[in-house]
Amino acid sequence: MAEVVQAGLWGLVAGSALLLGAALGYGLRVPQKVIAIVMAFGAGVLISAVSFELVGEAYEQAGLAPAAVGTLVGALAYTGGNVWLARRGARHRKRSGRDRAQAQPSEAEQGGSGTALALGALLDGVPESAVIGVSLLDGGAVSLVTVAAVFISNVPEGLSSSAGMKKAGRTKGYVFGVWATIAAASTVSAVLGYTVVGSFSPAVIAAVTAVAAGAILAMIADTMIPEAFDEAHLAIGLVTVSGFLVSFALSHT
After folding, report:
1. Cα atoms in the Cβ-side hemisphere of radius 13 Å centred on 15
2. Which residues make Cβ contacts (< 8 Å) with residue 54, sequence separation at least 6?
3. End-to-end CA distance of the chain
4. I need a surface site. Which of 91, 144, 214, 233 has the fewest CB within 10 A?
5. Are 16 and 201 in contact (CB under 8 A)?
6. How far is CA 14 from CA 62, 157, 160, in A?
7. CB count, 10 Å around CB of 159?
8. Considering the entire predicted model, what is its pTM?
9. pLDDT, tens digit, for every residue of 213-240?
């Protein structure tokens, strides 16, 4: 199978977890602590993948400077986008809406918040998917650890966010339309990560990988950890470390 097709398929697999989570969050009353525990586990998995599969790989390819600068640029870019979207109604896009003070606003409460939520989901998902395509550049085989990390983290993201969208009065068509679009964007991002980034020099590839790593790490700290902590603060450390160790073990087998 052509590697570009593989990139697209793996991106779709990872993105489809958002739809799975959305279906669970919209159709079932999943306990808040369960959502929080899965979110914390997914955060730990992603932290490990960022450390060993992304930043570590960037360092090995191009040294400390491109890896460090790229990671900082990615974090700055994500934070800037996140601040802009937060002011337009997407601050609590990963919140399930149980706490009214942290609920997603309806369109009537804040016009344009629906678009901001969709753009926020795109901001969260694109860097994760792009690195799946980039991982194919190293020997022609996708990093299954990266795919697993993105998939595991996407389930609670889609679950919690879709529950919050439902409570904010978003229609079923809107909720699943958003996540279907993000799943499609994940496919495209993985393809572009392979085709576009693959034409660059190793140093540039390393820097781009680090940029994605910085964006993902900022996303974990800004959105995933706070949601998990609110509902499972006594267990979040242990659960996050468990996710980290599972991903670490997978990357070293």
Report:
1. 32
2. 131, 146, 209, 210, 212, 213, 216
3. 25
4. 233
5. no
6. 27, 12, 17
7. 27
8. 0.82
9. 999 899 888 878 887 787 767 788 899 9
Give the type of residue at 99: D
CA distances for 206 relative to 125, 127, 167, angstroms: 20, 14, 41
Q: How many CB atoms lie within 10 A of CB 221?
A: 15
Query: Which tokens is 217 given?
Result: 């790490």
Residue type, 245: L
**Least confident segment among 5-14, 174-183, 195-204, 234-243:** 195-204
Is 88 within 8 Å of 113 (Cβ atoms)?
Answer: yes
| Percent of all residues in the chain with a pLDDT value above 90, rounded to a whole number | 15
* Residue with the larger pLDDT of the pair 95 and 219: 219
Q: What is the distance between the alpha carbons of residues 201 and 115, in angstroms, rounded to a whole number?
A: 36
- Tell me how crowded residue 88 is: count the other CB atoms within 10 A of its CB: 17
pLDDT at 133 over 70: yes
Within 13 Å, how many C-alpha atoms sit on residue 129's CB side? 31
Other C-beta atoms within 10 Å of 253: how many? 7
117, pLDDT greater than 70: no
SS3 call for 243: helix
Residues 58, 69: Cα–Cα separation, whole Å: 11
> Under DSSP, is residue 211 helix (H, G, I), strand (E, B) or coil?
helix
